[in-house]
Amino acid sequence: MIPLFSSSAANAGIDLAGAVGRVLTSNWYVLGDEVKSFEREFARYIGNADCVSLANGTDALELALRALNVEPGDKVACVANAGFYGSTAIRAVGAAPVYVDIDPTTQNMAVDAFADALRFQPKVVVVTHLYGQMADIEPLTKMAHDAGVKVIEDCAQSHGAIRGGRRAGSFGDIGCFSFYPTKNLGALGDGGAITCNDAALADRVRALRQYGWSTKYHVSTPGGRNSRLDELQAAVLREKLPKLDQSNANRREIARRYNEAFVDLPLVLPSSTGEDYVAHLYVLRCRERDAFRSHLQTRQVATDVHYPVPDHLQAAYRAGLESQGKLAASEAASREVVTLPCFPGISDADVATVIDAVRSFFER
């Protein structure tokens, strides 16, 4: 079976043992030099002044909301097709999500739909760069700021993506990242971070990640928790960061091969294979999804669905959303999206097998 992702292939040639060895030799495991160095190096890479590392990407979203003073009863605009991660953070702070429909071409937040959602007066908008494809972040950010709305970029799937010479995470008030092992920049376990250009915001997140302390054992910031990236994960991320751009280029090349091979098929393909897309996931749309996935299974090609249930239709939180209007594009995408294997280190032969398997479904 050709897997959806292979850690051994993606991490080939990376000195993980050396990174771990540095930490073991130092005998310092939390908030040490590796964390400080990674934060400095990642901020420089993104193009922001500050980086604060955290325990995971969902904490990054939640603590970003808290740092922007989102409180119970506030509204936060977001998309409904991104796996409920943003919704989880919004619910955790007691706010209410205002779901915004997507552009069916990019699968990201639609500018005109966000313009309409401003009538609900959200305090913050979370703009997700889904599947590694950057959203229309410039008009969304301008529209938000003109309306007094803060912007959080959800960059969990878009490490290194570039639009207009700037990287994902450098446009909004705060950029949020996940370093889960399958991410374009992945640790050996959970990890996350926020980046920003506001020193006061960064300091607030630093307090929030460690119980709300101003100084040790003195809690001055409400809503704090234990959300620290450990030294082992920071060391691994430092080892991988210099290789991220090449890794992204490898992902894009696989996506280009797929797009070229599928262009004549009745599928909706990723809208870009340029630098604004880092191919975290290669997601296409197929109206016969179940039959398509079953066929690929018989051809020994793994697939997945990212994501099958839009946030507003999740069983736990369906009440009170009717007034926000229809999310026709988001719901249509959830019925059709399919993810194919696309990761650094996948062999040319395996890519060719995936292509043959997809084409053979339509040649039946």
Short description:
38% of the residues lie in helices and 14% in strands.
Provide the descriptors you would attach to this structure in a database record.
two-stranded antiparallel ribbon; 364 residues; 13 helices; alpha/beta
Query: What is the spatial order of strands in the main beta sheet?
Result: 1-9-8-5-4-2-3
Low-confidence stretches: none
Largest sheet: 7 strands, mixed
Shape: globular
- Mean pLDDT comes to 96
Briefly note the structural class of the backbone: alpha/beta
- The total beta strand count reads 13
Strand content: 5-15%
Q: Any overview of this molecule?
A:
- The protein has 364 residues and is α/β, with parallel strands linked by helices.
- 38% of the residues lie in helices and 14% in strands.
- The protein has 13 helices and 13 strands.
- It has a seven-stranded mixed beta sheet, sandwiched between helices. It has a two-stranded antiparallel sheet with strand order 6-7. It has a two-stranded antiparallel sheet with strand order 10-11.
- Strand 2, helix 5 and strand 3 form a beta-alpha-beta unit.
- Helix 2 runs antiparallel to helix 9, helix 3 runs parallel beside helix 9 and helix 10 packs parallel to helix 13.
- The longest helix has 19 residues.
- It is globular.
- The chain starts with 6 loop residues before the first helix and ends with a helix.
- The model has no long low-confidence stretch (mean pLDDT 96).
